[in-house]
Amino acid sequence: MRPTAPIAPLLAKELREVTAGRALWTMLLLVCPLVGYSFVQAVSLYSESSAAALQSPVLARSLSPLDGILVPTFGSFYVAVTLLFPFVAIRVLGQEKESGALRLLVQLPYRTSTLIAAKFCATLAAWLIVSIPALSALAVWVMLGGHLAAPETLNLLFGHLLYGLLAGAIGLLAAVVSDSSATAAIIALAVTIGSWVLDFALAGRSGLSAWLAQLSLTQTLRPFEQGLLSAGLVLGITAVIGGLAALTIVWLPPGTPVRTKVIRSSLCVLAIVAGLAAAGQIRESVDVSQDRRNSFSRADERLLATLRRPLVIRVNLAAEDPRYIDLRRNVLVKLERVMPDVTVVLTSGWSNIPNPDAYGQIDYAYGDRTDVSRSTSPREILPLLYALAGAKPPSPGLGEEYPGYPLVVSADVALLWFVGGLPLLIVLAWRHIRRLAQNKDSPVQQGVKP
């Protein structure tokens, strides 16, 4: 049995190598103006909307910092992570493979899983470093007097963290299956950009196309951007990250026969598919948005939760019809979250509707009672459901209205921080870390022997 060694020197080595490389700091410098410009533009648009909303409480309720500031700012960060972060992850492993140091690394007294875990820790540290500009934008927004709700903000950060780990796992796997960093970069970009193409090509489709569209990397962030923490989505992303890590472990040892690696990889792929299938069956989610955009009123939710009989909703609309999109967002998703037994049947177009005049019609069956409507508004659908269940509609709750957070402010001066102050600090930190790295030997040279 291979002897074990302390993991601290290995972690120190991985962190030193990822912070000493140019890929991390180059990406960090590129992210600064990208995030800064997006933040300044978001604040400008938010201020223009706030100027009119200050005179109208109704307009003010539509002003949410989550939509107006956080999502646009982190949207630019998402683009940078998608296109650039895989290069940073490839640097964690690719250089050792090209130089031949990987053969020495696998002979150290560490398990292969331990080696990959250390590289994932280095990838996580790299993501935390490149997220500094986006996190500083949040600090600037608070200093300008802006409002941040902790639950929805932390939920968005958590979503981007999962996405960053997913992009890093893709980069590590691409590095381990490729002969060079250039080939690994092509593979990683093919996966990330290909997911965008998949998302655009299959948007609005149903059936198998809809399931394939959910595999797009873009889909992973949308619930977090809407203030929804979905247990199924978190489990699915975790399963994919774990599966990619397992594939990386399989392909890391240089001396293992390719046939053996392929067989083990097939088992990993089956495990990923099983994890995604299990995640797809989990409906539990929490609405952490401050304006409760993903929920009905608390009184309605308490009453709907008591309706235990099966509810079957047959929607005679095409998946790409705007009315179905509104119905799905405003009613169906919320019903599936709160009612214990909801089944939605989508006819998906004219060809599946026996009577053409029925297109646009929505059939509701609760137990043995049925009703029909063409509305997509919860104000009309909820009373219909209560009538089917023989329940009295609840009284509207008081004090549940979202107040909104209008703010008229300029962030133009803050742009100097993102294009001047922060990049200068990054360059100074980069030089200092490289100087320290040059003055220290690697853990292998310090006596970590197999």
List keywords for this structure.
450 residues, mainly alpha, Glutaredoxin, 2 domains, 4-stranded mixed sheet, 6 strands, globular, disordered C terminus
Please characterize this protein's 3D structure.
The chain is globular, with a radius of gyration of 26 Å. The protein has helices at 8-20, 22-53, 57-60, 65-99, 101-105, 112-130, 132-143, 150-177, 181-201, 208-213, 222-225, 231-251, 258-280, 298-304, 322-338, 378-389, 415-438; strands at 228-230, 285-287, 311-315, 342-346, 362-366, 369-373. It contains 17 helices and 6 strands. It has a 4-stranded mixed beta sheet, with helices on one face. A hairpin with a 2-residue loop joins strand 5 (362-366) and strand 6 (369-373). With 450 residues, the protein is mostly helical. Mean pLDDT is 85; it is low at 441-450. Helix content is 63%, strand content 6%. It folds into 2 domains: 8-221 and 411-438, no CATH class; 298-389, Glutaredoxin (3-Layer(aba) Sandwich).
